[in-house]
From TrEMBL:
Descriptive protein name: Tryptophan synthase alpha chain
Keywords recorded for this protein, A-Z: Amino-acid biosynthesis, Aromatic amino acid biosynthesis, Lyase, Tryptophan biosynthesis
Subunit structure: Tetramer of two alpha and two beta chains.
One Pfam family matching this protein: Trp_syntA
Coiled-coil region list: none
HAMAP family: Trp_synth_alpha
Regions that span the bilayer: none
Zinc found in the keyword field: no
GO molecular function ontology, one term from the record: tryptophan synthase activity
Key word Repeat present: no
Gene3D superfamilies: Aldolase class I (3.20.20.70)
InterPro entries, per the entry: Aldolase_TIM, RibuloseP-bd_barrel, Trp_synthase_alpha_AS, Trp_synthase_suA
């Protein structure tokens, strides 16, 4: 079983959902980014999504777009992100790492080589936003051969006819996009989630994590109870961005503020 499967199974045995955190690699710089990622498990993150900076992040709202630009400005590359994961993995062999990004950098790197190198670096799963199930053969065979979970997005607009096809190409967990739109722009209602999650469960035994619009500890706690996990990204990116100086550089308190927010989210998810 992969680290992702092992983590969700352990949390299920504990009777609680997962806190999944998202931050862009290299935002606002490599050292600060690595320091925050290393601190996330201790602050209560159960799984970590690492965003791969890209110039045209079509699914992301303004906050994550700006994070990607900050990261690219300081020299972020896909090989650099893999090196970042490798450094994290040297001190943590248990916390699952998921790379979230877009296909173009992977294609430029070379799909076969990327999947092998990502697995060797300690990556456990991939969310490739712009590769739908119809084009899964672009990366699915290589990811599977390397032991990487390929995590698919399910949206409120995914109908009953399409849902089984999306889920058939999914491993690790299902990422439920709780809103129609881009990241961090608004939040779903509890009523809509209460309707959506059972519909997905009828088609899969995989864990379900809810993202795109989970900002507050209360929302994270509700999402983790309704599903199997809550994904929080934009709210953390906003906290990081607000802590930077006028030149977009980290201040001494930047990492601490992000990790303090994660601790509050984790407490809500754990019900403590």
């Amino acid at each position: 079983m992969s680290r992702i499967g092992t983590k969700f199974a352990a949390l299920k045995a504990e009777g609680r959902g997962a806190l999944v955190t998202y931050l862009q690699a290299f935002d606002p710089d490599r050292e600060t980014s690595l320091g925050i990622i290393r601190g996330l498990p201790g602050a209560g993150a159960d799984l970590i999504e690492v965003g791969v900076p890209f110039t045209d992040p079509m699914a992301d709202g303004p906050a994550i777009q700006r994070a990607a630009q900050r990261a690219l400005k300081v020299g972020a590359t896909l090989p650099g992100v893999l090196a970042l994961v490798r450094e994290f993995r040297a001190g943590d062999d248990a916390t699952p790492i998921i790379l979230m990004g877009y296909y173009n950098p992977i294609l430029a790197y070379g799909v076969d080589r990327f999947c092998v190198d990502a697995a060797a670096a300690g990556v456990d799963g991939l969310i490739v936003v712009d590769v739908p199930p119809e084009e899964a053969d672009e990366i699915e065979p290589q990811a599977k051969a390397a032991g990487l979970d390929l995590i698919r997005l399910v949206a409120p607009t995914t109908d009953e006819a399409r849902l089984p096809r999306v889920l058939a190409a999914t491993s690790g967990f299902v990422y439920y996009v709780s809103i129609t739109g881009i990241t961090g722009t608004r939040s779903a209602t509890a009523a809509s989630l209460e309707e959506a999650i059972p519909r997905i469960r009828r088609h899969t035994d995989l864990p379900i994590a809810i993202g795109f619009g989970i900002r507050t500890p209360q929302q994270a706690g509700e999402a983790a109870r309704l599903a199997d996990g809550a994904v929080v990204g934009t709210a953390l990116v906003d906290t990081l961005a607000a802590s930077l100086d006028e030149e977009g550089r980290a201040r001494p308190e930047t990492a601490g503020l992000v990790l303090e927010q994660v601790r509050a989210l984790a407490a809500a998810v754990r019900g403590t």
